[in-house]
Design goal:
Layout: H1 2-19, H2 23-54, H3 59-63, H4 65-89, H5 97-116, H6 119-122, H7 127-150, H8 158-210
Length: about 210
């Protein structure tokens, strides 16, 4: 959490100090803090998928999902501060209301999951409900980042495109890994149900024979 927060603060301070505290510096600080936060979100997002698909070598990363998620939430505090600042210095809303609501929901998911990661609060939600909330929240945030990365990717310059390309690649890669994980779980569930039905059928046949 310290790394997430301090790193985002350092990047924001660098942008504001170099480009000024006006719109240009604030927008740059906002973008840099989001990219820094994504560096913590992505491994938290794909850690479980990597462990599920390729086993023990990624178990350590999967076990650190909570810490990485909290570091992401800490870094996003700076991003949130920059959002508030850009609204404060703008004469009109800097982004459309629909986009503001969309990304606001993502932030709400991030901090709700951070609160529920505290054992005293997390136990108030059933394991099934918690699993659903975290799954929906993580997928929503992943899609929100992808939408941001894909928004006007060319922006009139190759430099802008190349700057976004690594993050866009990671975003698509993360979605692919999660999709493969869900497909694997679905396949295992189908196989398990078949085995259960087969076992029940064998048990019924034995009972009939004994009669």
């Amino acid at each position: 959490m310290g790394a997430g927060l301090l790193g985002a603060l350092a990047l924001a301070a660098l942008a504001l100090g170099t480009l000024g505290s006006g719109r240009t510096g604030t927008v740059t600080a906002l973008q840099l803090s989001a990219r820094w936060a994504y560096c913590f979100f992505w491994p938290a997002y794909v850690g479980g998928a990597l462990a599920s698909l390729w086993g023990a070598k990624f178990q350590g990363l999967a076990r650190r999902g909570r810490e990485l998620g909290l570091a992401f939430a800490a870094a996003m505090l700076v991003h949130l501060a920059m959002i508030i600042r850009i609204y404060a210095i703008s004469s009109r809303p800097p982004i459309p209301l629909q986009s503001a609501v969309y990304f606001g929901i993502g932030l709400a998911f991030a901090y709700l999951m951070a609160l529920l990661s505290v054992p005293a609060l997390g136990t108030r939600l059933s394991p099934g409900g918690r699993r659903i909330l975290f799954t929906v929240g993580m997928e929503y945030i992943a899609l929100a980042f992808l939408r941001d990365f894909l928004h006007d990717p060319f922006d009139g310059s190759l430099r802008h495109l190349l700057g976004y390309l690594p993050f866009t690649t990671l975003a698509f890669g993360g979605l692919l890994l999660r999709g493969l994980m869900y497909a694997q779980r679905l396949r295992r569930g189908v196989i398990h149900r078949r085995e259960v039905r087969s076992t029940r059928g064998t048990g019924n046949a034995v009972s009939d024979f004994r009669r």
